[in-house]
């Protein structure tokens, strides 16, 4: 049985650990190469059930990249000749001393933690499929550190990467968000209530050679006092669970025990001009907008909210997907019942995967706004697009927008695809959807007929008088055109030059 990593490193070993990880990266072990070799379009598509296929079909040629993928991502065992090609003697020794690598009596090497590629960075954490590496385990340890999973990658891709003075990463886990923020923050505080997770984050800071991340053990904002931050990120325990089995996963029966307190604390800890970004799941009840719940948790604080709905799970499919019971059908069915009953008790008809972003509202622009959109999960960096959403909303809310339009030109933001539906035999269009092409966030916008017509007219940058002249040919009055321009600005389909 292969024990879990301790995530402990002596200061004297830290430089050697950093060198070992750098050498593994240099063989080409990165997110793009993993996707290419395993034949997946996105690393979030990896499935443990496909491990035999990956090894037999995709990693049959045992070069150093194949060995790294097998050892550090697929939780495999590799022979010493492969290990020697992948890691030099010094690198092997430090990985063994720090408890990352073990070699059995048959000379097979196995990793006690995974080394997850995220972009061009490498982050240690507990295995994604812990039972595979621990034959005989019936339960995953409660203090298991969250692996670099789908939600971790969504948040990493959506985070706004502007230069900031200070960042706070709550529920830091492996420290992946904190370490990514370290590249554009003067200093980062990473907080987790799990001491083992804190050790993992410190371990990753040493492995990455990062010196501006401070790790604190504590309950959310408690260790940071009244300090405010320019960027707050969080990937909290959010699963509405009838059991408290995994500290990084289970958010109480409602799934809200931790994330509610994170959002409630934003007014006291988000600096003016800052942004807070959270990846989570929220149980949804019929006829209750998620925005109402978020506003309640904020306690009336004047913040703008952007909600990106990425996936929906019916209550039934969610219960089946989370049920446990590896031993017998009866145990599995009993677990399904417990999960489904809990969701019914909460009144949840579905569970929604979301990316949330919060910023302080500008009182000069009216009341705080909430924008909720459906998007495909991002498979590349989209932080700039999230930031643009806030800028577009605020431009559209300016009370002097029409005066600004007088000395500006309106142009399309970029290539736009239109999908129109109409009823046969009826000259009127039923609806039109517009989508900015070539963006990481694939968001369809439903347009009113006048918005469609105005957007179609803007073949080149136009002044307001020029747009009025063209719209006269479609019998559009000026008031309707101005309202359409404001709406298109808010949606990010046009901008001003």
Q: What can you see in these coordinates?
A:
By secondary structure, the protein is α/β, with parallel strands linked by helices. The protein folds into three domains: 14-112, no CATH class; 150-394, Vaccinia Virus protein VP39 (Rossmann fold), CATH 3.40.50.150; 400-496, Outer Surface Protein A, domain 3 (Alpha-Beta Complex). It contains 19 helices and 19 strands. The chain has helices at residues 14-26, 31-38, 51-58, 64-72, 80-86, 89-97, 130-133, 150-158, 176-181, 195-208, 259-269, 290-298, 315-322, 329-346, 383-397, 401-406, 449-457, 464-472, 478-490, and strands spanning 77-79, 101-103, 108-111, 114-118, 121-125, 164-170, 185-192, 213-217, 229-234, 270-284, 303-314, 350-360, 370-374, 409-412, 416-422, 429-436, 444-447, 462-463, 494-496. The protein has an eight-stranded mixed sheet with strand order 8-7-6-9-10-12-11-13, sandwiched between helices. Strands 1-3-2 form a three-stranded antiparallel sheet. Helix 10 links the parallel strand 7 and strand 8 (213-217). Helix 1 packs across helix 10, helix 4 (64-72) packs across helix 5 and helix 15 (383-397) packs antiparallel against helix 19. The protein is globular, with a radius of gyration of 25 Å. The relative contact order is 0.08. Residues 134-138 have low confidence and may be disordered. One of its GO terms (cellular component) is eRF1 methyltransferase complex. GO terms for molecular function: protein methyltransferase activity; S-adenosylmethionine-dependent methyltransferase activity. Keywords: Methyltransferase, S-adenosyl-L-methionine, Transferase.
């Amino acid at each position: 049985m292969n024990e879990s990593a301790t995530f402990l490193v002596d200061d004297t070993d830290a430089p050697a650990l950093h060198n070992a990880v750098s050498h593994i990266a240099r063989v080409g072990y990165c997110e793009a190469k993993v996707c290419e070799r395993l034949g997946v379009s996105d690393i979030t598509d990896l499935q443990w059930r496909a491990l035999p296929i990956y090894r037999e079909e995709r990693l049959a040629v045992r070069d150093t990249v194949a060995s790294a993928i097998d050892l550090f991502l697929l939780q495999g065992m590799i022979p010493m000749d492969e290990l020697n090609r992948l890691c030099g003697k010094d690198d092997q020794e430090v990985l063994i001393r720090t408890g990352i690598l073990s070699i059995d009596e048959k000379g097979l090497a196995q990793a006690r933690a995974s080394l997850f590629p995220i972009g061009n960075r490498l982050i240690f954490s507990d295995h994604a499929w812990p039972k595979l590496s621990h034959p005989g385990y019936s339960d995953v340890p409660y203090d298991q550190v969250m692996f670099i999973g789908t939600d971790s990658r969504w948040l990493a891709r959506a985070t706004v990467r502007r230069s900031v003075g200070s960042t706070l990463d709550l529920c830091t886990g492996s420290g992946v968000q904190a370490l990514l923020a370290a590249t554009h923050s003067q200093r980062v505080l990473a907080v987790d209530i799990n001491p083992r997770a804190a050790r993992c984050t410190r371990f990753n800071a040493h492995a990455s050679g990062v010196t501006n991340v401070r790790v604190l053990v504590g309950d959310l904002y408690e260790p940071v006092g009244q300090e405010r931050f320019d960027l707050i990120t969080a990937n909290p325990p959010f699963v509405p669970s009838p059991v408290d089995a995994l500290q990084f996963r289970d958010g109480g029966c409602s799934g809200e025990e931790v994330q509610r307190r994170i959002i409630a604390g934003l007014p006291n800890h988000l600096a003016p001009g800052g942004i807070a970004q959270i990846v989570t799941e929220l149980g949804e009840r019929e006829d209750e907008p998620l925005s109402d719940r978020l506003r309640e948790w904020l306690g009336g604080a004047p913040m703008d909210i952007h909600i990106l709905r990425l996936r929906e799970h019916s209550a039934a499919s969610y219960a089946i997907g989370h049920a446990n019971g590896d031993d017998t059908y009866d145990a599995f069915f009993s677990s399904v019942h417990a999960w489904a009953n809990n969701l019914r008790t909460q009144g949840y008809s579905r569970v929604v995967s979301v990316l949330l972003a919060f910023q302080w509202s500008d009182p000069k622009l009216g009341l705080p706004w909430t924008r909720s959109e459906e998007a495909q999960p991002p498979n590349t960096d989209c932080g700039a697009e999230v930031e643009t959403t806030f800028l577009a909303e605020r431009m559209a809310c300016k009370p002097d927008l029409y005066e600004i339009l007088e000395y500006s030109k309106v142009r399309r933001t970029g290539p736009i695809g239109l999908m129109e539906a109409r009823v046969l035999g009826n000259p009127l269009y039923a609806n039109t959807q517009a989508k900015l092409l070539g963006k990481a966030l694939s968001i369809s916008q439903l347009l009113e007929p006048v918005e469609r017509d105005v957007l179609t007219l803007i073949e080149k940058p136009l002044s307001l008088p020029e747009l009025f002249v063209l719209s006269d040919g479609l019998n559009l009055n000026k008031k309707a055109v101005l309202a359409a321009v404001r709406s298109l600005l808010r949606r990010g389909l046009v901008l001003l030059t």
